[in-house]
Amino acid sequence: MLKYSDLFDLEVMNYLGDYQDFEVSNIDKDTDWITLTPDYPIEVLAGEGSGGVYVVYGEGEIEKRSILFISSEGQSGKIGNNLSEFIAMIIEIPYWFDLLKFSGGGQLSEMRKTAHFMVAEFDEEHPDYNKAKTNLKSKLTLPNISDPIALLHSCMQSSDCKVLASDGWEYESLFNTFVSSDNTTWK
């Protein structure tokens, strides 16, 4: 099983930060601004470039707790059942956030359509990613995720908590209503 401490290997940290926007170094561990309902215990795992945070919530070992992403734009959702599964998933679909954005309100079929375009864009922007992916997998003990898009969809569907802003406003879902045909460059 993957240990949280495994993510602090310098090469792993660099790969996860550069390709998955999952940054475990220099993060703000303050959770005073995060309110969950129901009131689960939380810990910050990592941050991302635009100010969002990855947190684990619930009871038990950090590696076995569910993972919630809270964006800086007022969106949140469960994106992993445990750390090993989550890291394996984002290695396979580093463009996971855009799959949710272009999900047509949470449609798995639309996420699959979007993935077709996203993989091509990602490969063009990161031609060296397959080498990085191989290196990550060799350094980490991870499960094989046969359908990472379905896993992401399932995690979002099984979200069992909400994030509340300090004024009581409920964060929106990470599922957005855009569909792949909304992007005119994806034809």
List the topology elements:
Elements: H1 10-20, E1 35-37, E2 42-47, E3 53-57, E4 66-70, E5 75-80, H2 83-92, H3 96-101, H4 108-125, H5 129-139, H6 148-157, E6 162-164, E7 172-173
Parallel strand pairs: 5-7
Antiparallel strand pairs: 1-6, 2-3, 3-4, 4-5
Helix pairs in contact: 1-5, 2-6
Provide the gyration radius in Å.
16 Å
Helix percent reads 25-40%
Q: What is the domain total for the residues?
A: 1
Strand order of the largest sheet: 2-3-4-5-7
Order of helices and strands: HEEEEEHHHHHEE
- Number of extended strands: 7
Shape: globular
Through-space gap between termini: 41 Å
Q: Largest beta sheet, briefly?
A: 5 strands, mixed
Structural class: alpha+beta
Q: Give the number of helices.
A: 6
Percentage of residues in strands: 15-25%
Unreliable stretches, pLDDT < 50, 5 or more residues? Answer: none
Question: Whole-number average pLDDT?
Answer: 95
